[in-house]
Amino acid sequence: MNPTVIRPSLRRAKFSLVLCALFLAVVVWFWRMVVPEAHWVILLAGILPFFAPLLSWADTKRTSLTVDGTVVKYKHGIVSETVRAMDLARLQNIFVERTLSQRLWGVGTLVLETASEQGRIAIADIDNPQKTADWLLKISKEGTGV
């Protein structure tokens, strides 16, 4: 069985990237048509907002949940990385939390709980979170033979 990797959604990053591109187009138009004698530094005002989608993209790349057979691995971080592994059969609760904004975007927070001391893993902004939670529950039941 190939490992399945679950990552946060890129929907917000893509949407904010489109908004930043539109804002940059307005800044360039303003610079060229309204104040052509202005210094080129005015373009920095149009480029600075691009850091928001860049940070959002980096957040999706630094967090992952990998399901490989009966093992679930949670990785978080780029420079300093945290990796937690747990047996899929030891999962006690798998549920979804969704705020109003997450419901509008079609994403949610996937929460996995075990009986251990550090037994809660939450991954925000997962696409189709309820479908993912149902799938994890199904394979955890298959792994335990229930």
Characterise this structure:
The chain has one domain: PH-domain like (Roll), CATH 2.30.29.30. Helix 1 packs antiparallel against helix 3. It has helices spanning 11-34, 43-47, 51-62, 100-105, 129-144; strands spanning 4-6, 63-68, 71-76, 82-87, 93-97, 107-113, 120-127. A four-stranded antiparallel beta sheet has the order 1-2-3-4. A three-stranded antiparallel beta sheet has the order 5-6-7. A hairpin with a 6-residue loop joins strand 6 and strand 7 (120-127). It is elongated and about 70 Å long. The longest helix has 24 residues, at 11-34. The model has no long low-confidence stretch (mean pLDDT 88). It has five helices and seven strands. With 146 residues, it is α+β, with helices and mostly antiparallel strands.
Features:
146 residues, alpha+beta, PH-domain like, 4-stranded antiparallel β-sheet, 3-stranded antiparallel β-sheet, 5 helices, 28% strand
Topology:
Layout: E1 4-6, H1 11-34, H2 43-47, H3 51-62, E2 63-68, E3 71-76, E4 82-87, E5 93-97, H4 100-105, E6 107-113, E7 120-127, H5 129-144
Helix pairs in contact: 1-3
